[in-house]
Specification:
The protein contains 3 helices and 2 strands, in the order ααβαβ. About 45% of the residues lie in helices and about 5% in strands. The longest helix is centred in the C-terminal third of the chain and has 14 residues. α3 links the parallel β1 and β2. The mean pLDDT is about 95. Strands 1-2 form a two-stranded parallel sheet.
Length: about 90
C-alpha cells in the first residue's frame, strides 16, 4: 500500500515547519511524517537522527499534533524495534 498526500497532510506538514519541528529546507521529512500521522500510523522507523529520530523534534511534532487534534506519533530508530515474541 502506498499512502498519498492529502490536503490535510500538506497542511499538517506546513504547521510542523512553521513550528520549527522540522527545518524548512527538509520539508520532505515533514511531509513524510504528516502522511503517517493523518493515516493513523502510530510509529515511524527511521535512520534520520537529525530531523526525525530526535527527542526535541518529536516533542515539537507531537505538540503540533495535539494542537491540531491529531494523535501522537513515535519516531524511533531501527535499533528500538524489537522482534522478540514475533
Amino acid at each position: 500500500m502506498v499512502l498519498e498526500e492529502s490536503p490535510e497532510s500538506v497542511t499538517l506538514a506546513r504547521f510542523c515547519v512553521e513550528a520549527c519541528a522540522i527545518p524548512a529546507e527538509y520539508e520532505d521529512d515533514a511531509r513524510h511524517i504528516a502522511i503517517a500521522i493523518v493515516n493513523d500510523i502510530p510509529v515511524i522507523v527511521s535512520w534520520n537522527f537529525r530531523h526525525m529520530v530526535n527527542v526535541e523534534r518529536k516533542r515539537k511534532i507531537n505538540s503540533v499534533n495535539l494542537r491540531e487534534g491529531f494523535p501522537l506519533i513515535d519516531i524511533v530508530s531501527p535499533w528500538e524495534v524489537s522482534h522478540e515474541g514475533a
